[in-house]
């Protein structure tokens, strides 16, 4: 892979610790049976008041941050329930990466599996990134996944990714796609398994035919 894989864009600062998945995607938007139509519900109670009117002070409602593709968040981002809809809604809204001091474990797994990039950095770096994001004149964040490096006006930092997650981003793979890259090894294992224990092969199908 010679070309760097980069996420670059405007950032929005969410100065909220312990932002949970119920806030990210409220329950009333979970009625569908597929992944579509979730952008409307993203952070709904923060974006809109009780009458459904946009809150002008909320960062994602400001003209300067309307096209933000990177969120700078507080610690323990994505805590709460395990709803994967929170990740889907963020992506449908146009969010490609979230940078925070820490992430809830299940949210982290859901996000990285769906290729929503999560970057953990020290609180000091996060504070500077939030200040950069609040200044429209210098609000650009560049995340080089190949080099595992992030740069803004005030921050240059490296971050860690698990080799599996890094490969998924670089090669455009989901969990199934990643598994299929090992198909030859899987087939070889299966053939060896059946050769050693042929009486176990297709037991369910054989039993069904006999019945």
What does this structure look like?
The chain is 36% helix and 13% strand. By secondary structure, it is an alpha/beta fold. The chain has one domain: Alpha-Beta Barrel (Aconitase, domain 4). Strand 7 and strand 8 form a beta hairpin. It is globular and about 70 Å long. The mean pLDDT is 93.
Strand content: 5-15%
Predict the CATH topology: Aconitase, domain 4
Strand line-up of the largest beta sheet: 1-6-7-8
Q: What is the CA-atom radius of gyration, in angstroms? A: 21 Å
CATH class: Alpha Beta
Helix and strand content put the structural class at alpha/beta
Query: Could you say how many structural domains there are in total?
Result: 1
Task: Average the pLDDT over all residues and give the rounded result.
Answer: 93
Summed up, the helix count is 9
**Inertia-based shape:** globular
Order of secondary-structure elements: EEHHEHEHEHEEEHHHH
Would you report the number of β strands?
A: 8
So, CATH architecture?
A: Alpha-Beta Barrel
Main pleated-sheet profile: 4 strands, antiparallel
Q: Could you state the CATH homologous superfamily?
A: Aconitase, domain 4
Record keyword descriptors for this entry.
13% strand, alpha/beta, four-stranded parallel β-sheet, 211 residues, 36% helix, Aconitase, domain 4, 9 helices
Topology:
Layout: E1 6-9, E2 11-13, H1 21-24, H2 44-47, E3 70-72, H3 85-93, E4 97-100, H4 105-113, E5 117-120, H5 123-134, E6 141-144, E7 149-151, E8 156-158, H6 163-171, H7 175-180, H8 183-196, H9 203-210
């Amino acid at each position: 892979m010679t070309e760097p894989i980069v996420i670059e864009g405007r950032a929005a600062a969410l100065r909220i610790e312990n932002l949970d998945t119920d806030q990210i995607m409220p329950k009333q938007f979970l009625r569908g049976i597929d992944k579509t139509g979730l952008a409307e519900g993203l952070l709904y109670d923060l974006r809109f008041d009780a009458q459904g009117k946009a809150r002008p002070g909320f960062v994602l409602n400001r003209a300067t941050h309307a096209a933000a593709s990177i969120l700078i968040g507080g610690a323990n981002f994505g805590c709460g329930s395990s709803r994967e809809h929170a990740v889907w809604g963020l992506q449908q809204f146009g969010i490609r990466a979230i940078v925070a001091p820490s992430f809830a474990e299940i949210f982290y797994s859901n996000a990285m599996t769906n290729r929503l990039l999560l970057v953990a950095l020290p609180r000091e770096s996060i504070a500077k990134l939030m200040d950069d994001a609040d200044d429209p004149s210098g609000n650009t964040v560049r995340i080089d996944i190949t080099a595992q490096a992030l740069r803004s006006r005030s921050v240059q930092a490296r971050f860690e990714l698990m080799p599996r997650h890094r490969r998924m981003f670089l090669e455009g793979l989901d969990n199934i796609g990643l598994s299929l890259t090992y198909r030859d090894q899987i087939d070889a294992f299966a053939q060896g398994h059946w050769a050693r224990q042929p009486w176990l092969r297709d037991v369910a199908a054989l039993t069904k035919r006999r019945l």
